[in-house]
Write a structure and sequence with these properties.
It is a single chain. Among the domains are: 175 residues, Leucine-rich repeat, LRR (right-handed beta-alpha superhelix) (Alpha-Beta Horseshoe); 214 residues, Leucine-rich repeat, LRR (right-handed beta-alpha superhelix). It is built from five helices and 56 strands. The protein is 6% helix and 24% strand. The chain has a 23-stranded parallel sheet, with no helix packed on it. A seven-stranded parallel sheet has the order 39-41-49-51-53-55-56, with no helix packed on it. It starts with a strand and ends with a helix.
Length: 738
């Protein structure tokens, strides 16, 4: 691979390019990098052709450029050390643009940058320069654009040398504390200033909203307090003050900015609007976020907002019906009115034809769902949960080709589920939990091949187990709890067989027959223990960024774990659970249950299961909660269960277990309640001492493993002398026959 170089004049025998003075821009190629002794890093050495490009004007080594190369970045980190760094800057005398996002610069002095007096654009995002910037002063008199986000900076860099030239400054996503330095008021030509996602506090300086050329200001996600000062920067196009601790009334001067395109004031401690008449003229406004600002009534618009795309008025105290102007906004694509007190009929939104995302959850909506909602044919996300809606689910929703989130949980909907889900359905999240739906499950749901979360729990659905759902390759969460589902679950083999499932909840139904062994064997996602970090921690369907900088993620599910029923607003990916409780399952627990190493919760309680508790459960070392109560299990509690070091809740009550309770580790933490209703058990924590007397276990054999042996009892000591000899003789006679 060679450097991707424009205006190549000739190439040497080594493959290195010789450039003419007309060369303008260079983008990187991994041949710049020579592997160091460490496998996870690549170092730029001073003997590469990069250091002979004396007419280089622009260099971009950002890690994004490497993803498609033969080397996999950023797992193979690009490092620039001091010697080669300084040599490069000495030679690059006309360098105007330097973009090093993601390059390891922890061993490179920032003071050396001052050798490059021609720099205009400098980007050092995610480069680890925080320590060097504490001591090194950047003095770049021509610098206009400086990007230093994601560096864990704890103090502001000294930029006094560039105050007269700087037009764009990004210090977002760092750890800056204290107030905004007064020296920043000298940035008289600044047009873009981003200090978001830091720990800044105090009041917002008046000069900050008075800079004459300022167009974009982002102070969101800090800890600013006090009032918003009066705004005189009429050049402002984008103003983000959301997610702070600002209070008082929102000043009217905010709504007189005629060039405004983006305004985010969400999640502060405002008292609402000083005057509910806003925006006499906002012809360019595209995004308006006023969530959690204390609104008690809808703002009144004196002028038109012809191109408004996103509007968020959620988490306020809006009540009654919505204003006429809202339904006349044909440009709206995103509308969130969740967590208010609205009673608006749902059919009124049918006139917002361009809506992509509509969220009116957690309100007081009543009445039927009208099919006119489908007039908004571009709907991708429809969230109407936690209301009082009645009637049937409009069948047309199943045919909206772009709809991928449909959340109707916690309403009073009745009738049957739509039976016309189309072959091209994009549906990924479907939640109708806690309604009054009845009838059979529609087989057309198997057409929704993108489906990841399906929650049909707490209804009156009456059908056999929907085995055809196992053909959905991406199905991760299946909740069918608390319905009227019945019959055995057949062991049917298909291509996928729930291979992606991590939550399988069919509790509180009328299923019977044996636990389906084939399903357990094919729960592939439950077999591998994976550590998740950052954005990967939760299962959920994410939809477009909104509320300024927050993404919308949905993933509600109600589960019973550790003897507690809880609603998870976000589902941890490592929350792997099986709940078959409150059914009529019979027979034994399949031994293959021990292969589900990622399992955290296991609930087989209140069934008719029998036989021995399989020793293989001892392999479930991530298990935190296990409930096998109210069954007919016999025999001893396997000592292998003491391997479950994370087990917090154990319930084996109301069975026919016998013998001494295993001791040690987590078993030392369980109370009597874990073992009640097993008259043959003894030992701690029960008051009944075992006294070295063996209890008589049942004779029913286990199907697999060591329990398959078949001889389910042991000789009982009934006396001394010839009585003992007689007992031993019987045992020897048995072994000879077998």
């Amino acid at each position: 691979m060679d450097l991707h170089i424009q205006n190549i004049q000739q190439t040497t025998s080594s493959g290195r390019s010789v450039l003419s003075q007309s060369y303008q821009r260079l983008t990187p190629d991994p041949k710049i990098i020579s592997e160091s002794n460490r496998k996870d890093q690549g170092e730029i050495h001073p003997n590469t052709s990069l250091f002979r490009l004396s007419h280089l004007q622009s260099l971009n080594l950002t890690f994004n450029y490497f993803y498609s190369s033969q080397l996999s970045f950023p797992s193979v980190g690009l490092m620039w050390k001091e010697n080669s760094w300084k040599k490069f800057l000495q030679n690059a005398t006309v360098l105007a643009e330097l973009i090093l996002d993601g390059v390891n610069m922890t061993f490179s002095s920032m003071r050396s940058l001052n050798l490059s007096t021609s720099l205009v654009n400098l980007s050092l995002k995610y480069t680890g320069v925080q320590e060097n910037l504490k001591t090194d002063i950047l003095c770049l008199p021509k610098l206009k654009h400086l990007w230093l986000s994601d560096n864990s900076l704890e103090q502001f860099p000294n930029l006094s040398c560039s105050a007269a030239s700087l037009t764009m400054l990004d210090l977002s996503r760092n750890m800056l504390e204290g107030t905004i330095p007064a020296s920043f008021s000298n940035f008289t030509h600044i047009t873009f200033l981003d200090l978001s996602n830091n720990l800044l506090n105090g009041t917002i300086p008046t000069w900050c909203l008075s800079l004459p050329f300022l167009q974009e200001l982002d102070l969101s996600e800090n800890q600013f307090t006090g009032h918003i000062p009066s705004i005189s920067s009429q050049s402002l196009k984008s103003l983000y003050l959301c997610y702070n601790k600002l209070h008082g009334n929102i000043p009217q001067s905010v709504f007189t900015l005629v060039n405004l395109t983006h305004l985010c004031l969400s999640s502060n401690n405002f008292n609402g609007l000083h005057n509910y008449t806003i925006f006499t003229n906002a012809p360019l406004l595209e995004r308006l976020y006023l969530s959690s600002v204390g609104l008690t009534e809808f703002p009144k618009l004196l002028g038109k907002i012809p191109i408004l795309i996103e509007l968020d008025l959620s988490n306020n105290k809006l009540n009654g019906t919505m204003p006429k102007w809202l339904h006349e906004m044909g440009s709206l694509q995103f509308l969130s009115l969740s967590h208010n007190l609205l009673t608006t009929p749902i059919n009124q939104f049918s006139r917002n034809y361009n809506l992509n995302i509509l969220d009116i959850s957690f309100n007081l909506l009543t009445g039927d769902m009208s099919s006119s909602i489908c007039n908004a044919s571009n709907l991708q996300v429809l969230i109407l949960s936690h209301n009082k809606l009645t009637g049937v689910i409009p069948p047309c929703l199943a045919n909206l080709w772009g709809l991928y989130i449909l959340d109707l949980q916690r309403n009073k909907l009745n009738g049957t589920l739509p039976n016309n889900f189309s072959m091209n359905s994009e549906l990924a999240y479907f939640n109708v939990n806690d309604n009054q739906l009845e009838g059979p499950l529609p087989k057309s749901l198997s057409n929704c091949t993108q489906l990841e979360i399906l929650n049909l729990g707490n209804n009156q659905i009456e059908d056999k187990f929907p085995h055809w759902l196992q053909t959905l390759p991406m199905l991760t969460v299946l909740v069918l709890r608390s319905n009227k589902l019945y019959g055995p679950i057949d062991d049917l083999e298909t291509q996928y067989e729930f291979s992606s499932i991590v939550i399988f909840d069919i509790s509180s139904n009328y299923f019977n027959g044996p636990i389906p062994k084939t399903y357990i064997q094919n729960f592939k996602a439950m077999k591998n223990v994976i550590s998740y970090e950052g954005d990967e921690l939760y299962i959920g369907i994410t939809y477009m960024p909104y509320n300024g900088s927050q993404r919308g993620t949905i993933g509600y599910v109600t589960v019973t774990t550790k003897a507690i029923s809880m609603t998870l607003k976000q589902i941890p990916k490592n929350f792997v659970t099986i709940d078959l409780s409150q059914n009529k399952f019979q027979g034994q627990i399949p031994y293959v249950i021990g292969e589900l190493h990622a399992l955290r919760g296991l609930n087989f309680s209140h069934n008719r299961l029998s036989g021995l508790i399989p020793k293989s459960i001892g392999y479930l070392t991530n298990l935190e909660s296990m409930d096998l109560s109210s069954n007919m299990f016999t025999g001893r509690i396997p000592t292998e269960l003491t391997n479950l070091n994370y087990l917090e809740v154990l319930n084996l009550s109301n069975n026919q277990l016998v013998g001494e309770i295993p001791q040690g580790k987590q078993f030392a933490t369980f109370s009597n309640d874990s073992y009640l209703g097993n008259s043959g058990l003894c030992g701690f924590p029960l008051s009944m001492s075992c006294n070295n007397t063996e209890q008589k276990p049942p004779s029913s054999p286990s199907l697999l493993g060591e329990e398959r042996f078949g001889f389910g009892w042991e000789p009982v000591v009934i006396g001394y002398g010839c009585g003992m000899i007689f007992g031993i003789g019987l045992r020897l006679l048995y072994y000879r026959k077998t």
